[in-house]
Amino acid sequence: MRLNNSFIFLAITGTSAWAPTGRAGNAKRPLHTTNHNNRPFADVTHSRRIRKLHGTMPPLTVGEEYLPLARDMMSFIDSSPDPYHVVKTSADQLEAAGFQKWNESEKVGPGDKLYFTRNRSTLVAFTVGARYKSGCGFKIIGSHTDSPNLKVKPFSKRSDKSGGSSGMIQLGVECYGGGLWHTWFDRDLGVSGRVFVREGEGITQKLVKIDDAILRIPNLAIHLQTADERKAFGLNKEDHLAPIIASAVKDMLEGKSDETCTPCDEKDEFANDKEWAKKQEPVLLQLLAERLDVDVGNIIDFELNLFDVQPSSLGGARSEFVHAARLDNLASCYLSLRGLIDHVDEGGVEEDSDISMIAMFDHEEVGSSSTTGAGSPILQEAVKRVSSALGVESSASLYDTMIQSSFVLSVDQAHAVHPNYASKHEKNHGPKMNDGMVIKRNANQRYATNGVTGLVVRELARRAGLPPVQEFVVRNDCGCGSTIGPIISTRTGIRAIDMGCPQLSMHSIRETMGTKDLTNGLALFRAFFKDFAAVDASIEG
């Protein structure tokens, strides 16, 4: 979720290794039965041990049937530390489910399962119902692939050769989005993203994910702080967030601080590459080259961000929580992806007369105003291109009918009530974790929800036998964040609702959500793809 510019809203949100959980009999996507260390679920064993010792312990608050889906999402998140990996992971799983990458000049027909990407950081995937008829609508779930993080600056070198007075080598980093930056201190940090490599006459993009603890931002010891500094954490984002990557003394002894290129000849056709390399931290380039198995001199650019290397985990005495990085908004990306794949696996395409679509946008956390954000023409063009490929756009009246028959679920994480800061929520609109999905409303149109769109989702949940949908509004004395719903509905004219799973610690380096809410969310998305047309027809326009 994006921050309001005037407020900080404190809520108290290669090849992929992830494979979506399958249902019984689906050998393509087996259930996970072990944790990240290849051991049985420690949390389940712990709960059983408690019940054995105390006898009267009540049953699991969150049953074991919710755990495979939760762990599967954890694997998805751990495989996706940046938007490029999110898109690669998602595309791999779409192809495993029978989707094909769409050449957007090609025709589209009933029964097709297609996807396309933009900048390798935004993805759109869709199915065309086998019973499709001209003028039928789009059922769209929108989410975003980005999360607040620290990005490596274009020129990464921060320290001189000696490491300055500290004897440490640091990287220059830039704040992306509205992170809770104090949570990045004293964490084991890796680096991921994409690297541009010169190969022969061409330039290739390679994904990189270094999940070793190569970086760290240490806190200042309390003994070195003044009394005033101890009372309030004072953070200068330029001076205090630079991570340590190596010891300068050790690095010089091992010969790893030397320049990575020779002096540049003005007539050298690769002089620009060498000048660029001079402004990069050699240790970083060497690590990237080793991981990618390329020559250091062939690395000519990168887009990298830092991430916490600690894996996601199940938490709480009865495994009722998921603790993970980037729940805002990879939980929504995961659920929308699973919802569309399940729609295919369950035969929904054969029974469908509409177009079912997911759209994962980049740059939501910084306003969506980019060529790959929700503020770009991507979704509007996708709707037009698909409808044109189906022969609809030639008729203006049919196209208008199609837009009026369409609907967008803008899915972004919601703020659960924080037990230590319950007063931060409006007293009658405080969502709870593990208690159902959340509809977000704002009278000033920071969210796209209105009475009709909210009712559609409530009715979908009712018909699917899900818990009643929760409602969220901010207090009148608090600023309200926003997300992609209003942007999409404004640009496309399609009805939209803003909603999501409730969570704590939004924009922290590590966030928390309810295990059961994943199952609730997936069930609602599957119901949306299956039953939206019937629910929409039942509500008077």
From TrEMBL:
Region (Disordered): 21-41
GO cellular component, one term: cytoplasm
Pfam family, one: Peptidase_M18
InterPro entries in UniProt: Peptidase_M18, Peptidase_M18_dom2
Cofactors, names only: Zn(2+)
GO annotation (BP), single: proteolysis
The UniProt record lists the keyword NADP: no
Entry's Gene Ontology molecular function annotations: aminopeptidase activity; metallopeptidase activity; zinc ion binding
Superkingdom, taxonomy of origin: Eukaryota
TM segment ranges: none
First-level EC class: hydrolase
Keyword Membrane in record: no
Keyword annotations from UniProtKB, A to Z: Aminopeptidase, Hydrolase, Metal-binding, Metalloprotease, Protease, Signal, Zinc
Reactions catalysed: Release of an N-terminal aspartate or glutamate from a peptide, with a preference for aspartate
Signal peptide: 1-17
EC numbers: 3.4.11.21
CDD domains per the UniProt record, alphabetical: M18_DAP
Entries under NCBIfam families matching the protein: PRK02813.1
The family this protein is said to belong to: Belongs to the peptidase M18 family.
UniProt-recorded name of the protein: aspartyl aminopeptidase
Species: Thalassiosira oceanica (Marine diatom)
